[in-house]
Amino acid sequence: MSKIAFVTGASSGIGWSTAEYLAQEGYDLVICGRRAGRLKELADKVSVKTHSLVFDVRDKKAAFDAIESLPAEWKAIDVLINNAGNAHGLSNFQNGDIDDWDAMIDINVKGLLYISKAIIPGMIDRGRGHVVNVGSVAGKEVYANGNVYCASKFAVDALNNGMRLDLNGTGVKVSQVCPGLVETEFSMVRFKGDEQRSKSVYEGFDALTAGDIADLIRFIVTRPAHVNISDTIVLAAAQASATIVDRSQKS
Ligand code: 8X3
Description:
Elements: E1 4-7, H1 13-24, E2 28-33, H2 36-45, E3 50-54, H3 60-68, E4 79-82, H4 98-126, E5 129-134, H5 147-166, E6 172-179, H6 186-190, H7 195-201, H8 210-221, E7 231-234
Parallel strand pairs: 1-2, 1-4, 2-3, 4-5, 5-6, 6-7
2-hydroxyethylsulfonic acid binds near residues 138 and 179.
């Protein structure tokens, strides 16, 4: 019987790639996102069975209803990829936009909580499962102007540790992947569609790709039952920290 992976934020970037990589491993996929058209494209692209759930992880009722609505054959989720997350704005604290703060806390922290709360009890009942939380290097170090985004990813880091401690003995593994600079829609969202500013984030070095992160997630979820890779940080080779990047090697 195939295993089922549940991927949030699957309509682009790391989530999309992770769905593709897990499909290559034979996982059937529950793909979640706000953009039905993108989920349809993804479903058409992979060669495994898929079930799409269109909702916003910020919306508590929609999140619980969507998961509750899963047909019986999709309910036994083996792997949960808590990927949905965004940065909104890059501003010093004193000029921060409260709507941006709400979005980051609601999506990156509360959204992850809702999805986990809806899915993990089933994993515990079945005595097996694997939760992979997509954190960030921003959850390991605070950088200037990162304030609330960093706080939201520090929360993911804390929840990853908290889940692992509390789920010990249940058969459910908990792992975290903390990417550095990955070239996806991430900066376009952070900079609200400012293409020039977004492009400049990845100029002068080879940034990570969504596939680099998906490949690691695939590795983590395909380890033998007795192995748990509890935490990882993945930086571009040109990156020494969240903000120290050697841009001198590439024109
Ligand atoms: C994405 C990495 O360094 O842009 O979470 O915050 S960073």
